[in-house]
Design goal:
By secondary structure, the chain is α/β, with parallel strands linked by helices. The chain folds into two domains: 134 residues, Rossmann fold; 95 residues, HAD superfamily/HAD-like (Rossmann fold), CATH 3.40.50. Helices cover 37% and strands 21% of the residues. A seven-stranded mixed beta sheet has the order 5-4-1-13-14-15-16, with helices on both faces. It has a five-stranded parallel beta sheet with strand order 7-6-8-9-12, with helices on both faces. It has a two-stranded antiparallel ribbon with strand order 2-3. It is globular and about 55 Å long. 45% of the residues are buried.
Length: 279
Amino acid sequence: MTSTPLESIRHLIIDMDGVLYRGNRLMPGADRLLPWLDQHGIKYVLVTNNSTRTPSQYAEKLRRMGLVVSPGLVLTSSQATASYLQRVAEDGDRVYCIGEDGLRQALAQAGFEFSEVDPSYIVVGLDTGFTYEKLKRACLAIRAGAGFIATNPDLTFPGEEGILPGCGSLIAAIQACTGVAPKVIGKPEPGLLQAAMDMMASQPENTAILGDRLDTDVLGGHRLGITTILILSGVSRPEDAASASIKPDYVFWDLPELMRSFSAPAVSPPKKTIWRRKS
């Protein structure tokens, strides 16, 4: 497959952690990216596998860093997980939630009741208050037949202190004591990215995903047949992209380099650290 030229991209799915910010620190060029996209008529949705916040909380986090975004342009793995459960759960099914505000609110808004006793589903997202007690309850419930659902498989995520444990690390602990793998909803599974495309009414040939991870952003985009753009400001490094079995279509050091390449793809030759995947 030949990757879509950057100038043909009219819809952009933008990962947040490691692309727009790291912890509470705005990434270089992030303050100019969204106005630049508006100026060039490129629609976008901000998507995250991180299930800890609600869309409104993410919009507020971005506002504090100087980015004004409507909560309606933010799509989280918590929302996608709640939508999935609405489709598969039966009336009266209860959930035991290991997660934070974003996941709990999405499940509550979808009409689910929380229970520590005989839940029908164990739903797991990133939880910075994860304890042995939570692990024990999940273990016993899954061994008793409860379904095991996870918002995302990210083993780590970029924070201000460095690379931190993610939801996938919690999943690994639960899977180790139950022998059961979860149904994963977020990237690289297609549901979250397809929902973002549906929000923009976009088609694969004019849509790209911009992210910092090969194992979620690039792999998820590849599975959907959309253009993949890797930014080396988060988790994945140049050597990772060079050796990956599924390579991104484009790789850039940072957002300013990406915007320059969008603006003048035929005039400004790519630097040594930037490449486009060959057909």
